[in-house]
Amino acid sequence: MLKATLRSFLAHKGRLLLSALAVLLSVAFVTGSLIFSDTVSHTFDRLFASTAADVTVSPKKDLDEALPSGRTATLPAALAERVRQVDGVVAARADVKVNGLTVVNEENEPVGPTTGAPTLGYAWNPHERSPVRLTSGHAPRGPAQALLDSETAGRKNVHIGDALTVIAPPGSFRVRVVGIVTFTTTNPGSALLYFDTPTAQTKLLGRAGTATSISVDAAQGVGDERLEQRVAGALGAHTYDFRTAGEQAESDVEQLGGFLDVIKYVMLGFAGIAVLVGVFLIVNTFSMLIAQRTRELGLLRALGADRRQVRASVLTEALLLGLVGSTLGLATGIGLAAGLIGLMGLFGMNIDADEMQIGWVTPVAAYVVGLGVTFVAAYLPARRAAGVSPMAALSDAEVAGVGRPLRVRAVAGALVGAAGAAALAGCAVSRQTSSAASLLGLGVVLTLIATVIAGPLLVRPVIRVLGAAFPALFGPIGRMSQRNALRNPRRTGATAAALMVGIALVGGMSVASESMTASFDRQIDTTLGADFVVQNTNFQPFPQEVTDKVRRTDGVGLVVRGRFTPVAVRLPDGDRVETTAAGYDPRLDEVADITYAQGHSAAALARGHLAMDRDFARDHGVRVGGVLPVEFPGGRSAGLTVGALTDQDAAEGFGTQGGLFFGLGTLERYAPGGRDSALYVNAAAGTSDDDLRAHLEQTLDPYPQVQVRDLADYKQLVHDQIAVLLYLVYALLGLAIIIAVLGVVNTLALSVVERTREIGLLRAIGLARRQLRRMIRLESVVIAVFGAVLGLALGLVWGVCMHQVLALQGMTALAIPWVTIVLVVAGSAVVGVVAALLPALRASRMNVLAAIAHE
């Protein structure tokens, strides 16, 4: 049996090739993501471990910032002297590190990275663990000198002696490059500037005698944990945060983890789609091969092979297919990881491909995925093959069971579909976001499974409708192509299911993204009343001088400032909610149209008052006039009176919870030191919008990170952010289509082999080669469109339910992307034509007499 299995596998290796490609893609994305994330993690683990001080003292962190407030947490630089007196300390340094600088050259062009990596400012305080060393020039001395890292200097053509303008949180200042520093470790993609310590304190932090952390080096023989305890005892364990080198490195890796997780999960998403769609391809392949090998299997049974041996033979072939696909997929995954590492280099993150990490988990995962996919996919065809008697097999009846009733599928599909519909209905009526999202996920999985199970039941009614025009348009050729698609509903359903999965995902996400876009558009139209919004490109706060210059710009009539701050609110129901609140100037009503359920802007912005979303207030038992304990950064707290409740459609649309806001007077009292994140500007009387925009752009020309946006610009900004998610979904669709094309090609190719004699007879009675090719193409098109129709129907249902979840977050507008739907259906027809090219060409080249004699 083993010899027979191996010979059978080698005899059909061409027919199994496309299935092996599906396994290869699945394994490649899994292994590529694991290798890439392991390599990057290892690189940065080593970087942070080699540069972290034995003990780091940092300001106490109390509240997380969902949106940047512009505050830089500091501690007294004099603490370094106190730390030096602690037993076991050999050195202590007061460090200054500020994120989010903007640096421009004399042509006002940005010098820092434009790929999302930050520009960092430091105090020049070299030591043996510094990530850089001075390689040319001299150390900075005085407020007009700075060092720049060599990679940024090379990329932006900056040399020693060049002048730069640094836009820091306290304001902008000019410096001259007096030296170049070179990384001794991996450059994470950032641009680095170094200043002498007094300049860093005053120009980056805004106050002399401050620091962002204290780095402590231990004396020989003193452990990090023991030193941490001594330093904490000297400074007060609850006053600051204390971390050993290991803890600091772990914290740094966690901050980087979000970026790595995005790439990892995106690639695993691709792998999941490849696995899911590949299963359909492999099931179809083995079902058709078993049907075509009916006589061979019957002979084996007649010669004494029992059911278990036949089943084991088919599963062994599947495992061989999985072994080949997994091995090739592992090699492809290594190449994919190398490509990703090279891509990161284009974005400034220099990772050495020679240090690629391939742990034992990666090959194990590769073979578990590859072998598991093929085994699971081939199990049902193997059982079907083993369940046929020798006499039935010798009579050449198809094991695939063309005429077998679909009652079992109907019952199973109905049960699973009912459970999925119930979950989606529960999602639609749920009032809690978490429960609605959980029910949505369950409903999506169950309805997808139900559609796959019941797909063959839908083949005949749907394809009769889709192909109804074929006889009128193409005559007998059209009628035969329609009947060929109807001949085996199981095969047609499984072939179309591969395409259905990808299109269902696109349909659902397109509805969700279109609804998000429409909701934000409506919210912007109804809320934003300012002529222009001045805002940082990445929503980072900007220096106070920007606000001052905007106010002095010709044609400016009113400027209302907006700031953010993290807060924690103690609510009457006992919950403590951490969120982000906004602060505004008193004349907010003149630049924004806020709908209030209770109260008004004057009450909301009064000192010691706040406003929140009505639904949030209702859920937590908050009433107007109640006093809520609110915690601010830096350990400050206050009791604020609820002055108003708003009724905004998107109170939580930007990731904040509760829609909290108050006056800038309240914010500056309890959270001083913040910076403006947005300026809402109205034109003065007699100034046109075009003139005001031109004046504002001229004012802000020295600040390339700050943009002037009107209503249309603001909408486009939101559209672009949502489009990033949609592009990812389209990429997933592209992968699903690639594998779906492989599936259609495989099905048609095997179908051509299966119908060799039939094709020969058709040619013998006068069917031309061109007509034969057209018949196979039309069959492919109707199968592809069938999959697209099922996928769109499923995706639209998912999308509407996704919208219900979004509506709980304030995004209530429902929008159906009809253009996308039409394009998807048209594209599926194109996919069908492309997939049929090779099988149709092969069929048309058959020798007629040989085909008629084929058994």
Automatic annotation (TrEMBL):
<feature type="transmembrane region" description="Helical">
    <location>
        <begin position="334"/>
        <end position="351"/>
    </location>
</feature>
<feature type="transmembrane region" description="Helical">
    <location>
        <begin position="778"/>
        <end position="798"/>
    </location>
</feature>
<feature type="transmembrane region" description="Helical">
    <location>
        <begin position="461"/>
        <end position="480"/>
    </location>
</feature>
<feature type="transmembrane region" description="Helical">
    <location>
        <begin position="265"/>
        <end position="290"/>
    </location>
</feature>
<comment type="similarity">
    <text>Belongs to the ABC-4 integral membrane protein family.</text>
</comment>
<feature type="transmembrane region" description="Helical">
    <location>
        <begin position="492"/>
        <end position="512"/>
    </location>
</feature>
<keyword id="KW-1003">Cell membrane</keyword>
<dbReference type="InterPro" id="IPR003838">
    <property type="entry name" value="ABC3_permease_C"/>
</dbReference>
<feature type="domain" description="MacB-like periplasmic core">
    <location>
        <begin position="492"/>
        <end position="698"/>
    </location>
</feature>
<feature type="transmembrane region" description="Helical">
    <location>
        <begin position="436"/>
        <end position="455"/>
    </location>
</feature>
<keyword id="KW-1133">Transmembrane helix</keyword>
<feature type="domain" description="ABC3 transporter permease C-terminal">
    <location>
        <begin position="270"/>
        <end position="390"/>
    </location>
</feature>
<keyword id="KW-0472">Membrane</keyword>
<dbReference type="Pfam" id="PF12704">
    <property type="entry name" value="MacB_PCD"/>
</dbReference>
<dbReference type="InterPro" id="IPR050250">
    <property type="entry name" value="Macrolide_Exporter_MacB"/>
</dbReference>
<feature type="transmembrane region" description="Helical">
    <location>
        <begin position="358"/>
        <end position="380"/>
    </location>
</feature>
<keyword id="KW-0812">Transmembrane</keyword>
<feature type="domain" description="MacB-like periplasmic core">
    <location>
        <begin position="17"/>
        <end position="232"/>
    </location>
</feature>
<feature type="transmembrane region" description="Helical">
    <location>
        <begin position="724"/>
        <end position="753"/>
    </location>
</feature>
<feature type="transmembrane region" description="Helical">
    <location>
        <begin position="818"/>
        <end position="838"/>
    </location>
</feature>
<feature type="transmembrane region" description="Helical">
    <location>
        <begin position="410"/>
        <end position="429"/>
    </location>
</feature>
<dbReference type="InterPro" id="IPR025857">
    <property type="entry name" value="MacB_PCD"/>
</dbReference>
<feature type="domain" description="ABC3 transporter permease C-terminal">
    <location>
        <begin position="732"/>
        <end position="848"/>
    </location>
</feature>
<dbReference type="Pfam" id="PF02687">
    <property type="entry name" value="FtsX"/>
</dbReference>
<protein>
    <submittedName>
        <fullName>ABC transporter permease</fullName>
    </submittedName>
</protein>
